[in-house]
Amino acid sequence: MRSNIVKNLCKKRCKYYKPSKDNELACKGFTVIEKLIKNGKEISFNKSGKKLNASTEKKLIEGMCVACSFYEDGCDFAARKKDAAPCGGFILLGYLLNEDIINMDDMKNIL
C-alpha cells in the first residue's frame, strides 16, 4: 500500500517529493491519506481539474498543516512563499473534502 501511495500521490502530485526520502515520508498529507486507506476509506488518486475553494484551503491549513512536521521549516506553501505549491497530500485531501468523499472529522480522528 505504501508504495502505491508514494507512486500515486507523492511522485505525481508533490513538488517537494524526493526519491531519497521514501523511507522518511512524514508530511501530514501522506500520513492522513495512508491512515484513511488503512481505515477502509476508498481513495481515488485521479486528478481533479477543479480549483480548491478558499474555505477548504483554510480548513486544511488550520487542521492539517499546523500539525505537519514540515510546517515550520520545510514547507514553502505553509510559509506562504511566492508561487509555492502545496504538497501532494494537501491537494488530494482538498479534492476529497470538496467532493464530500471525506470530511474534516475524518481527518481530525487521525490527527
Please explain how this structure is put together.
- The protein has about 110 residues and is mainly α.
- It is about 45% helix and about 0% strand.
- The chain is built from 5 helices and no strands.
- It is globular and about 30 Å long.
- The mean pLDDT is about 80.
Q: How big is the Rg?
A: 13 Å
Shape: globular
What is the number of helical segments per DSSP (H or I, 4+ residues)?
A: 5
Task: Give the total of beta strands.
Answer: 0
Q: Percent range for helical residues?
A: 40-55%
User: What do the pLDDT scores average to?
Assistant: 80
Strand content: under 5%
H/E order of the elements?
Answer: HHHHH
Characterize the biggest β-sheet.
Answer: none
SSE topology:
Elements: H1 2-13, H2 28-38, H3 54-63, H4 88-98, H5 104-108
Helix pairs in contact: 1-4, 2-4
